[in-house]
Amino acid sequence: MIDLGSHTTPPAKPDITPLLDVVFILLIFFVVTSVFAVQGMELDLPEAQSARSVSGNSHEIRIDKGNTLFFDKAKISSRELAFTLRGLAERSGGSPREKIILESSPDARVGLFISVVDTVRTAGFDDLVIATQPPSPPKQP
C-alpha cells in the first residue's frame, strides 16, 4: 500500500561554508595589501652620541642625497614647505606645539639644510629635532 499522507521535510539549513570562504579570502587580501601600503624611503642618517627617540605630535621633513625635500613623505618644494609650515602655525594659534623632525642625508647640501632650518624657525616652530642615529658599535677584528 502506498502512503499518500503528508510528509514533512526537515527545514533547510543554510550552508555557511561559502560565506566563511569569502570572509577568509577577504581577510587575506586586506592583510597582504596592508603590507604593501606602507611606503618609506631609506635614508642614511648621520651618527651622533646624543641620539635619542622622540615622542609626541610631529611632522617630518626629509632631505635625500639628491637634495629633494619631502614633508610627511610627500615631495615638496622649498616654497611649498614655507607655505605649509606657516599654515600649520596659523592653525595652532601662532605657537605650534608640534615637533618638526628634520632628517637629512649626510650627502645633502649644507646650504639646503640651513635653508630648511631657517624656514622652520621663521614659520614659528621652536621645537626642531634634527634626526640622527646612534653610532654603530666598533667592529671587532
What characteristics describe this protein?
141 residues, alpha/beta, 5-stranded mixed β-sheet, 3 helices, 5 strands
The radius of gyration over CA amounts to 29 Å
Number of helices: 3
Q: Mean pLDDT score, rounded?
A: 78
Strand order of the largest sheet: 3-2-1-4-5
Topology:
Blueprint: H1 17-37, E1 58-63, E2 69-71, E3 74-76, H2 78-91, E4 99-104, H3 110-122, E5 128-130
Parallel strand pairs: 1-4, 4-5
Antiparallel strand pairs: 1-2, 2-3
Helix pairs in contact: 2-3
Care to give the gist of this entry?
Helix content is 34%, strand content 15%. The chain is α/β, with parallel strands linked by helices and 141 residues long. Strands 3-2-1-4-5 form a 5-stranded mixed sheet.
Describe, in plain words, how this protein is organized in 3D.
This protein is of the alpha/beta class and 141 residues long. It has a domain at 58-130: Nucleotidyltransferase, domain 5 (2-Layer Sandwich), CATH 3.30.420. 34% of the residues lie in helices and 15% in strands. The protein has helices spanning 17-37, 78-91, 110-122; strands at residues 58-63, 69-71, 74-76, 99-104, 128-130. The chain has a five-stranded mixed beta sheet. Helix 3 links the parallel strand 4 (99-104) and strand 5 (128-130). Helix 2 (78-91) packs parallel to helix 3 (110-122). The protein is elongated.
